[in-house]
UniProtKB/TrEMBL annotation:
It is an enzyme of class 3 (hydrolase). Its EC number is 3.1.1.-. Residues 24-141 form the YbaK/aminoacyl-tRNA synthetase-associated domain. CDD domains: YbaK_like. Keywords: Hydrolase. One of its GO terms (molecular function) is aminoacyl-tRNA deacylase activity. InterPro entries: YbaK/aa-tRNA-synt-asso_dom_sf, YbaK/aa-tRNA-synth-assoc-dom. This is Ala-tRNA(Pro) deacylase. Pfam families: tRNA_edit (PF04073).
Length: 163
């Protein structure tokens, strides 16, 4: 699979400037960062959460972990991780585990971690496990203009900044 059709359409509709970075197949965002030789703090990962009211996406640096209590406080909802089966159903044009951050295009409220929003450039999954989209920070923020910025994540232990 290559770039998701939904992502292609969103990039085109926003007039986004970007480049594709190809890398060896990877199973996780941290593996993708290592395979593409990019800083993990600049690689966006998308975490899908749910409750009885529906789905919410959290977009954060790959070196960070979602703090559910922070999102519960922010949203007033008791969100939990969505299942792999739900991800496949919602993101039909993406490989499992390779979700682009443009979740509003899939009908979901999206929260963008402020630690990612401040990066000079950002990489993110294109919808498969072998391509990343790379764009300047201002282009990424324009692409994510429908996401609400919030602080809801903490750096994972042992995840220092590397170039």
């Amino acid at each position: 699979m290559s770039m998701s059709i939904t992502l292609q359409e969103r990039l085109r509709s926003k007039g986004s400037r970007y480049e594709i970075v190809r890398h060896p197949y990877s199973h996780s965002s941290m593996e993708s960062a290592a395979a593409a030789h990019i800083p993990g703090d600049r690689l966006a990962k998308t975490v899908l959460l749910e409750d009885e009211h529906g789905y919410v996406a959290a977009v954060l640096p790959s070196t960070y972990a979602v703090q559910l209590s922070e999102l519960w406080n922010k949203t007033g909802r008791r969100l939990a991780l969505a299942t792999e089966d739900e991800l496949r159903e919602l993101f039909k044009d993406c490989d499992a585990g390779a979700l682009p951050p443009i979740c509003a295009a899939y009908g979901m409220k999206t929260y963008l971690e402020t630690n990612l929003a401040g990066q000079p450039d950002v990489y993110f999954e294109a919808g498969d496990h072998e391509e990343l989209v790379h764009m300047e920070g201002d282009q990424f923020l324009a692409l994510m203009d429908d996401a609400e910025r919030a602080h809801f994540a903490r750096r994972m232990r042992g995840m220092g900044v590397r170039a």
